Amino acid sequence: MPTHGLSNREEREMRGINIVGPSNAEPTPGPPSPAMYQLDIILKKGNNLAIRDRTGTSDPYVKFKIAGKEVFRSKTIHKNLNPVWDERVSLLVETLKDPLYVKVFDYDFGLQDDFMGSAYLHLESLEHHRTLDVTLDLKDPQYPEHNLGSLELAVTLSPKEGDVRDATMLLRRNWKRSSKYQSMRLSDVHRKAQLWRGIVSISLIEGRELQPMDNNGLSDPYVKFRMGHQKYKSKTIPKTLNPQWREQFDFHLYEEQGGFVDITLWDKDAGKKDDFMGRCTIDLSLLSKEHTHKLELPLEEGEGVLVLLVTLTASAAVSISDLSVNMLDDPHERHQIMQRYSMWRSFHNLKDVGVVQVKVIRAEGLMAADVTGKSDPFCVVELSNDRLQTHTVYKNLNPEWNKVFTFNVKDIHSVLEVTVYDEDRDRSADFLGKVAIPLLNIQNGERKAYVLKSKELTGPTKGVIFLEIDVIFNAVKAGLRTLIPIEQKYIEEEPRVSKQLLLRNFNRVRRCIMFLINTGCYINSCFEWESPQRSICALVLFVLFVWNFELYMIPLALLLPLAWNYILIASGKDTRQDVQAMEDLMEDEDEDFDKDDKDPKPGPWEDSRDKNHILEDMLASWHFEWIRAMVDSERKGFMNKLYAIQDVCISVQNALDEVASYGERIKNTFNWTVPFLSWLAIVALGLATTIIYFIPLRYIVLAWGVNKFTKKLRDPYTIDNNELLDFLSRVPSDVQVVQYRELKLDPNPSPNKRKKNNPG
After folding, report:
1. Which long-range contacts (CB under 8 A, 24 or more apart) does 517-526 make?
2. Within 10 Å of residue 205's Cβ, how many Cβ atoms?
3. Which backbone phi and psi does 225 adopt, to 5 degrees?
4. What pLDDT does residue 336 have?
5. Residue 272 belongs to a domain with what CATH number?
6. Measured between alpha carbons, how far is 310 from 251 in angstroms, rounded to an integer?
7. Cα-based distances in Å from 467 to 311, 405, 444
8. In the beta sheet, which residues pair with residue 597?
9. Fewer CB within 10 Å, N side or C side of the chain?
10. How does DSSP classify residue 53?
11. How is the beta sheet containing 69-73 ordered, strand by strand?
12. What is the predicted pLDDT for the residue at 490?
C-alpha cells in the first residue's frame, strides 16, 4: 500500500487514527463536496481488549455512532480479548464534519453492559475511493492513561453523485444485510419484528465414566450451557463419576439455520477455582425440528460421555409492534385467541398456557441521569427468559414509547418485569426504575400508572410508568403447569454476601420457628388446664376426632383453615398482617443494593481490594478472630480462603432463605395471598378427600408403588419432580409479596425519602 508523508501520518494520529501499513501515494486534493457520501467499513478484529469479567475475559461488541445516533452494532464475541468480527457495514453520511464514534462494550445479560473504551475516526481525513487499514486505540475519557487495547478496521469513503434517492435505496438494501445483529432499540424502524424463530429444549440426563478430579477418586460435577448470550448452569452432583441430573433448559433459537450450543463440564471445589473436566458442542443445524433427539456426546479435553435429549420446536408469536398494530384490539383476532384458550381446548398443547399483551404508553417524572438535567430513557419488558425492548427517547424525562409487546405465557405464575434505563454514550445503561407485576394480578384492559421502584423492588424511586396489559389464558392448563418444575432464569450474576440479607433471612426463620413454638405452647396450655373452658373443649374435640377418625379426614382438616380464612377475608377481616413487618425489615436494605452502573468493573487489583473490604467488614461484624489469624498467617492462600468463607456464608444465607420461604409460602397458601393457588389447593384437597373416602387405602398405595417402580421402565429419561414442592414454588414468599405490591402515588414525598430513593 502506498505511504503518505510524515505530516499526513502525524495529522491522522492526532485525529485518533493509526494507519496500518506503508503508503507512497501523494495525497489527492479533496473533490467538491457532493450531496452524499458512502462509508464502507469492515470491522476486522480487536487486540488486547480490557478485562471486564471476573473470569479474566470479556464479551465484547462494538457500536458505531454518527452525530449522536447509533448506526451499527456488531455481534457479541463471547469470552475473548482478541475477538475477530469480520463484519461489513455501509453507511450513508451527509457531511464529513461529524466523526465516526466507535465504542466497545462488554455484554452482560440484564443490560448492565460495561464500557471497554472508545475512539473517534475523523472522516475528513479519509481519502476518497481508497480503502485504508485503520487501527483505533481505545481510551476511557475519564482515565486517558489506561491502555484499553485497539480495533482494526478497513474503511472506504466514496462520494455519491447523481440521484440521492437511488443512493438511499441502495443503502437500505445494504442496511438489511449488515444489521443482522442490530440492537432492538432500532425496532421502531419495523412495523412488527419477530425476535426468535424457535425453542431449543435440552434435557440433561446423565454423565458416564467421568474423569476423577478429587483426591478421593471422585468428582462433584456440574454442567454449563451457553448459546450466544443465553447461559444456564446445572445443579452440582456430589462425589460421583456417573451423575444423574435430570434437568431441563430452554433456549431461544434466533437463526433459521440453527446454531451451536457450547457445553462445558466442571468439578465443584470449595475454596478454590473449579476444575475443568471437558467440553462438547451441539450443532443444531444437523437436528430435525419437532423431534426429540437422544445425544451421547463424548467429552473433548476430558473423559466420559454426557447424555442429553434435544428438541427443536417452532416459536410461538413473540413480537414488538407500534400501538396502532396490536392483535387484541382487532375483534376478529381477539375472538380467535379466546377460542384458542377456551376450556374445550384444555388438553391441547399443554405448554401453551396463554398470551399476554403489554402496551408501554409513556413515563412521567423520571430521574435525571445526565448532567444536563435530562435522561435518554428506554424500556425493557421481561417475562421469564423472554425480553423485549423499546427505542430510546432522547433528552426527555416524560418519554412516550407507544409500543405493544406480545408474549406467550408458559406459566401463569410468571412475573412481568418492566424496567426503565437511561442510555449513556460512554457507559452502560443507568437504572431509572422498575416494576414487577404478577400476571395473575393484572386487570385486563386497564390503563394504570405504576410507581417505579428501586432495583431490589424494596422502595419507590422517582417517576411513574403507564401500562395497559391484557392476559388471556386457559385455567386448566395453568393449573396443570403449576405441578411441574418452574422454568429457570438465565445465569445473571453470582450470589454475594450481604449482612443485611443474612440478618433478614435469620429473622424470617426465627418468625417461622416462633410460630411453631407458640403453637406448641398453646397446645401445651390445654394440657396444663390454664384455661378450664379451653381445655374442656379441646378434650371433647380430641375424643370425638380419635373415636371417629378416618384417613380422609386429614385432607378434609386442611380444607378447614382455607375455608375459615376465606370467610374472614370476604367479611373484611384480612388475616394477612405480616406484609408491613416484612416491609419494615426490608426498608433499610435498598441503599446496600444500589450500585453505580456507570463504573466499569474493577480490574484484578481493585477486585482484590473490594474483597478485602468485604472480609474486613465480616471480621468486624461477626468477630471471626480466628479467621483473621488464619489470613494473617498464610498470605499465599488469601484469595482461596476468602472464596471458601464467602461460599460458606452464601450457603448459610441461601439455606436460611429457602427454609423461611417454604414456611411463608405454606402460610400464604392458607392466607389466600394468591387466590388462584388457594382455589387450586382446595380442588386438590377435595379430590384427595373424595379418593381416600371411596377407594381403600391398600389400592391407593399399590397404585402409587407400581407407578414408582415402573416409571423408569416406561420412560428412562423422565425428569423427576415433586408436585407439592413445585406447587409451593409458585406461591410468593413474604419478600416477594412486598416486591410485587403496587405503591400508591405520592405527589409530595419527603426530602429525606427522596434523597434515599434517588441517590444519584
Report:
1. none
2. 23
3. -110, 145
4. 87
5. 2.60.40.150
6. 11
7. 36, 11, 11
8. none
9. N
10. S
11. 69-73, 60-66, 100-106, 114-121
12. 61
Last residue of a domain, one of 114, 145, 161: 161
Q: What three-state secondary structure class fits 389?
A: strand
252's enclosing H/E stretch is strand 244-253
Question: Residue 69's pLDDT is what?
Answer: 78
All residues at 6 or more sequence positions from 508 whose CB lies less than 8 Å from its CB, including other chains = 585, 656, 657, 660, 661, 663, 664, 734, 735
SS (H, E, C) 537-563: HHHHHHHHHHHCCCCCHHHHHHHHHHH
Residue 680 lies in a domain: yes
Render 553-617 in DSSP notation, one character per residue. HHHHHHHHHHHHHHHHHHTT------HHHHHHHHTTSHHHH---TTSPPP-HHHHHHHHHHHHHH
C-alpha cell at 143: 482515565
Count of C-beta atoms within a 10 Å radius of residue 415:
18
End residue of a domain, out of 282, 313, 344: 313
Q: Within a domain: residue 404? A: yes
Same structural domain, 89 and 124: yes
Whether 689 and 580 share a structural domain: yes
- Distance of alpha carbon 276 from alpha carbon 233, whole angstroms: 14
Query: Is 649 within a domain?
Result: yes
Question: Is the Cβ–Cβ distance between 252 and 383 less than 8 Å?
Answer: no
Burial call 723-746: b when 16+ CB within 10 Å, e when fewer: eeeebbebbbbbbbbbbbeeeeee
Which pLDDT score is estimated for 306?
94
Q: What is the DSSP letter of 329?
A: G
Residues 6+ apart with CB under 8 A from 500: 588, 589, 592
Rounded distance between C-alpha atoms, residue 479 and residue 684, angstroms? 10
Same domain membership, residue 347 and residue 279: no
Residues whose CB falls within 8 Å of the CB of residue 57, separated by 6 or more in sequence, listed in order: 51, 79, 80, 81
Three-state secondary-structure class, residue 288: coil
Same structural domain for residues 323 and 246? Answer: no
CA angle 543, 546, 548 (to 5 degrees): 100
pLDDT for 408: 86
CA distance 224 to 267: 11
Q: Quick one: 294 and 334 in the same domain?
A: no
- Residue 411 in contact with residue 385, Cβ under 8 Å? no
Are residues 216 and 96 part of one domain? no
C-alpha cell at 461: 424511586
Q: Is 752 exposed, middle or buried (0-12, 13-18, 19+ CB in 10 A)?
A: exposed
Determine the Cα–Cα distance for residues 177 and 194; give it in Å rounded to an integer.
17
Helix (H, G, I), strand (E, B) or coil at 394: coil
Distance (Å, whole) CA 114 – CA 117: 9
Report whether 111 contacts 417 (CB < 8 A): no
The length of the chain is: 760
Domain that holds residue 331: 319-482
Local mean pLDDT, 10-residue blocks, the chain (760 residues): 41 39 41 69 91 82 85 84 86 84 81 82 86 90 87 88 43 37 33 56 90 90 86 89 88 71 89 84 84 88 91 67 72 87 87 90 90 86 82 89 88 93 74 94 91 90 93 94 83 68 89 91 90 92 91 92 91 66 59 44 40 46 49 55 75 89 93 94 95 93 92 80 91 92 71 42
Clarify whether residues 235 and 156 are in a common domain: no
Residue 754 located in a structural domain: no
Looking at the fold, whether 243 and 364 belong to one and the same domain comes out as no
Q: Calculate the dihedral angle through the C-alpha atoms of 304, 307, 308, 309, rounding to the nearest 10 degrees.
A: 160
* CA 201 and chain centroid, separation: 18
Rounded to an integer, what is the distance from CA 329 to the centroid of its chain? 30
Q: How far apart are CA 751 and CA 745, in angstroms?
A: 16
